[in-house]
């Protein structure tokens, strides 16, 4: 058992090293050439193999996206890491995630932030992620079956918002739920077209600016709720 645990830790360390190489290679887009220590620690703490289907667990620590069912994927670890890092999370942060999927991104956020509200439009994925995160001890995550494009006004405003599917345009409802001084990261563009990962920052007066613009490829953000 100890040998298996050590092997998993080694796999996470090798994956993090691969992610850090990708960060350095894309620094012209990201405005940074490394990751914050808190992001690295969260990355090493979360067992990615628990978030992928059993039949492909041997691929869990490769730096690539993997299918999780329902035409959805668990994102490439490099993308997950930089999206987490660009948010600039603090230990007291309240985070809204749009697109729970398997719950891996939510777990990373929960390692750093105080509260994570995550929305998933596919009921089966929401149920599975809720049970998985609870089993793994993530008590500071609320998984809700809801239309992510509308956000979740009941707990707004949020310090940070992260969208894990590509929006054709930035959902205005999400910007309204972002507090002044907050950050939102979202891939924008159509599937099969050029998509960009964009970081939005809202200043104290409510003015929104954008940056990053890393080329990416995400599944689309959809607005229909599936049981």
Main features:
single chain, 227 residues, alpha/beta, Rossmann fold, 7-stranded mixed beta sheet, two-stranded antiparallel sheet, 7 helices, globular
Walk me through the structure.
The termini are far apart. Helix 6 links the parallel strand 4 (115-120) and strand 5. The protein has one domain (2-216): 3-Layer(aba) Sandwich (Rossmann fold), CATH 3.40.50.150. It has a seven-stranded mixed sheet with strand order 5-4-3-6-7-8-9. It has a two-stranded antiparallel sheet with strand order 1-2. It is globular, with a radius of gyration of 16 Å. The protein has helices spanning 2-25, 27-30, 37-45, 77-86, 104-112, 123-135, 172-176; strands at 66-69, 72-74, 94-98, 115-120, 141-145, 158-163, 178-188, 195-202, 208-216. It has 227 residues and is an alpha/beta fold. The model has no long low-confidence stretch (mean pLDDT 92). It contains seven helices and nine strands, in the order αααββαβαβαββαβββ.
């Amino acid at each position: 058992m100890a040998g298996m645990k050590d092997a998993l830790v080694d796999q996470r360390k090798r994956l993090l090293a691969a992610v850090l190489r990708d960060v350095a290679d894309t620094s012209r887009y990201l405005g940074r050439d490394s990751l914050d220590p808190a992001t690295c620690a969260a990355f090493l703490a979360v067992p990615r193999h628990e978030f992928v289907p059993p039949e492909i667990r041997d691929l869990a620590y490769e730096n690539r996206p993997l299918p999780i069912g329902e035409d959805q994927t668990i994102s490439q670890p490099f993308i997950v890491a930089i999206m987490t890092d660009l948010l600039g999370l603090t230990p007291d942060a309240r985070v809204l995630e749009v697109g729970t999927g398997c719950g891996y991104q939510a777990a990373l956020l929960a390692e750093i932030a105080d509260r994570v509200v995550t929305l998933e439009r596919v009921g089966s994925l929401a149920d599975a992620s809720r049970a998985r995160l609870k089993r793994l001890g993530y008590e500071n995550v609320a998984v809700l079956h809801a239309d992510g494009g509308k956000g979740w006004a009941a707990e707004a405003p949020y310090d940070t918002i992260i969208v894990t599917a590509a929006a054709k345009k930035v959902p205005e409802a999400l910007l309204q739920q972002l507090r002044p001084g907050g950050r939102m990261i979202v891939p924008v563009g159509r599937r099969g077209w050029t998509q960009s990962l964009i970081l939005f920052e809202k200043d104290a007066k409510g003015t929104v600016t954008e940056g990053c613009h890393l080329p990416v490829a995400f599944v689309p953000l959809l607005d229909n709720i599936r049981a």
